[in-house]
Amino acid sequence: MKMMKRPLTQFGYACLSMTMTILASLPFNATSQSIITDRPDRTESSASVPKGALQIESGMLIGFEEGQNGRRTRIEAPATLFRLGIVKGLEIRVVNRLTTIQYTERQIQGINDPELGVKLELWKPENRSTQIAFLSHVTIPLGTEDLTNNSYGTINKLAITHAISDRFDIGGNVGYDYFGEGVGIFTYSLALGHAVTDKMSIYIEPFGEVPEFETSRSGVNAGVTYLISDHLQVDFAFGTGTDHQMNYLTLGISWLTGQNEKSPE
């Protein structure tokens, strides 16, 4: 079934294209920091990208879910997060997802509401193993009809990371999302990561949400990341629902480029 697009959706595509063009054309210089990503798990890291650096995290997701209206297949390809370091400890973020949802008798295809946000490091002392950051996104109602929320929304998370040892760390998020209706959604996740080698890491992560602060929906996922270089990483993850019928897998790649050169002494 072919879906009609609203005029605002065309404007949304233009805005996203302009934003991506501007980010891609900014002057970047070499960086020595190893990449730290917010994918493929659901737990956002407490680290921002360095000042002047651009990090692109992109991938595809295929999900299956059983509900009252039958089986639903969701494909996000690509789903891309752009992260740009503004000053030390602060980044701006742009999220764009192209989505196909297949129901039993119809298909929806188009763009989700784009997101514009920031991540701010709140606590990152030297020689301390715990870091804290706050992340907030605004969703802009420019998506394709049947994929848009038709109103502005917010996605907010408090991210905490703790290094247990040189090889193990744990990270958690608690959050609140609101999309213009009801009382919102409480979200949570907790990821335990292990560096198997200097290049490969694995993790396991329980996660969930409480829509309208009533009935909860939870799941668990696990995955692996591999550093091709200090600035290029590939990943794979899979997840399943623990109290509802849902499964998904995701595959992605992330690239860090540039940061401002050090000021001359």
Give a written overview of the molecule:
There is one protein chain. This protein is mainly beta. The protein has one helix spanning 7-25, and strands at 54-67, 70-87, 90-102, 107-111, 115-123, 130-139, 153-163, 168-178, 185-195, 200-211, 217-229, 232-241, 246-257. The termini are far apart. Residues 1-32 and 260-265 have low confidence and may be disordered.
Text of the CATH class: Mainly Beta
What is the CATH architecture descriptor? Beta Barrel
Residues in β-strands, percent: over 45%
Helix content: under 10%
Low-confidence stretches: 1-32, 260-265
Mean pLDDT: 88
Helix-strand string: HEEEEEEEEEEEEE
Query: Superfamily at the CATH H level?
Result: monomeric porin ompg
For the largest beta-sheet, the strand count, sense and barrel status come to:
12 strands, antiparallel, barrel
Looking across the biggest beta sheet, what order are the strands in?
Answer: 1-2-3-5-6-7-8-9-10-11-12-13
Shape: globular
Radius of gyration, Cα only, in angstroms? 19 Å
**Annotation, overall tally of beta strands:** 13
| CATH fold category name | Porin
Task: Compute the number of helices.
Answer: 1
> How many discrete domains?
1
